[in-house]
Write a structure and sequence with these properties.
The protein is α+β, with helices and mostly antiparallel strands and 223 residues long. It has helices at 17-28, 44-53, 102-107, 190-222; strands at residues 2-7, 32-36, 59-65, 75-83, 110-111, 114-116, 136-138. Strand 5 and strand 6 form a beta hairpin.
């Protein structure tokens, strides 16, 4: 009924190669048909093309599943498709992001070097008296200060493989630039992995929020 699709294939031009292949296969097997949930009259190719040209973080498609029995009740679903790509405009690039620290994983999403946590989820001795509220702890208080080794370089220019030193000179000339590194590169540095992880969070968050909202609306309609 609900599908969250994360597309990280080798598709630097965002032609949605993998998604189109999956749609074609589903049609061939007569499993289902796809449509624009906002306007089902639109041609599907036009819907896909509009998504690739936009800066929309995700694409929502409706799915009508086929049934072998004519009297069977129609079954519909929704796909929230996220294509891995950078959405910021060229004149406002996002710099290379810092590595992910254990404290970020333990205490949640980093906001201006502050972590939003519940008071019971960490040792109270680690909380600084300077914290603005009981539910926040500064990373500096925990003895860490996350910072990027390349704070002025756009993340779209980060290239290189195997070693962090490659990031200082390779601007996508070696194995492609972030996030369109060649799939032959299976040896991400911690810095490269962190930037992929942060980009994934950045792109997936609005898609998950929309999926959750659609589930709530469906539940209320069926109540």
């Amino acid at each position: 009924r609900w599908i969250l699709s994360m597309d990280a294939g080798d598709d630097a031009d965002c032609k949605l190669v993998d998604l189109k292949t999956a749609i074609a296969l589903a049609r061939k097997e007569r499993l289902c048909s796809f449509y624009d949930v906002k306007d089902p009259r639109r041609d599907l190719d036009e819907v896909l093309e509009a998504y690739t040209r936009s800066r929309t973080p995700f694409l929502q498609l409706g799915v009508l599943y086929s049934s072998a029995h004519a009297e069977a009740e129609e079954c519909v679903g929704d796909i929230f498709h996220v294509r891995m790509r950078i959405l910021e405009p060229e004149d406002a690039p996002v710099p290379v992001q810092p590595e992910i620290l254990p404290e970020e994983v333990l205490y949640g999403h980093r906001r201006s070097r502050r972590e939003a946590v519940t008071p019971s989820s960490f040792n109270s001795a680690a909380v600084s008296s300077r914290s603005s509220s009981p539910g926040e702890v500064e990373l500096v208080t925990l003895g860490v200060q996350p910072s990027s080794p390349f704070p002025t370089r756009p993340r779209s220019e980060m290239g290189g493989i195997c070693s962090t030193c490659c990031h200082s000179w390779s601007r996508g000339n070696l194995c492609g630039a972030f996030p369109n590194t060649h799939t032959a590169n299976q040896f991400f540095t911690p810095l490269m992995w962190a930037n992929f992880c942060r980009l994934g969070y950045e792109l997936a968050t609005p898609a998950i929020a929309a999926l959750s909202l659609a589930q709530q609306h469906a539940t209320s309609r069926n109540a």
